[in-house]
Design brief:
The chain is 0% helix and 50% strand. With 128 residues, it is mainly β.
């Protein structure tokens, strides 16, 4: 009932920029299915990491690893989430996932276990 589709992944050189998008559709009968939307990433051999999230009221949170380099935003009218990535590093290479959750605690915005809906992921490759 809730679908998330990421786009915008690709290959970029270190220091470059990339913007990811996540188009959400909500045909569920539950309110606020897309209240909190976040970006997660998983590199080979590593655990999935929450990196940025934003709620429908515009409150944002970032992981230390991306603070100051990445910007999360959303268009509530379009149910679309964005991640502007700048000053990319080779360690940013991963599969990036979009996720959505109902109302959850702000302190849990970067916890993947709190999210109910997930996109299929998009690959980001950063070369030196």
């Amino acid at each position: 009932q809730v679908q998330l589709v990421e786009s915008g992944g690709g290959s970029v050189q270190a220091g470059g920029s990339l913007r990811l998008s996540c188009a959400g559709s909500d045909r569920s009968r539950y309110p606020d299915s897309l209240y909190c939307m976040g970006w997660f990433r998983q590199a080979p051999g590593k655990e999935r990491e929450g990196i940025a999230a934003i709620d429908a009221d515009g409150y944002t949170v970032y992981a230390d690893s991306v603070q100051g380099r990445f910007t999360v935003s959303r268009d509530n009218a379009k149910n679309t989430l964005y991640l502007q990535m700048s000053s990319l590093k080779t360690e940013d290479a991963a599969v990036y996932y979009c996720a959505a959750a109902h109302r959850i605690l702000f302190t849990d915005y970067l916890k993947d276990s709190e999210y109910s809906y997930w996109g299929q992921g998009t690959q980001v490759t950063v070369s030196a």
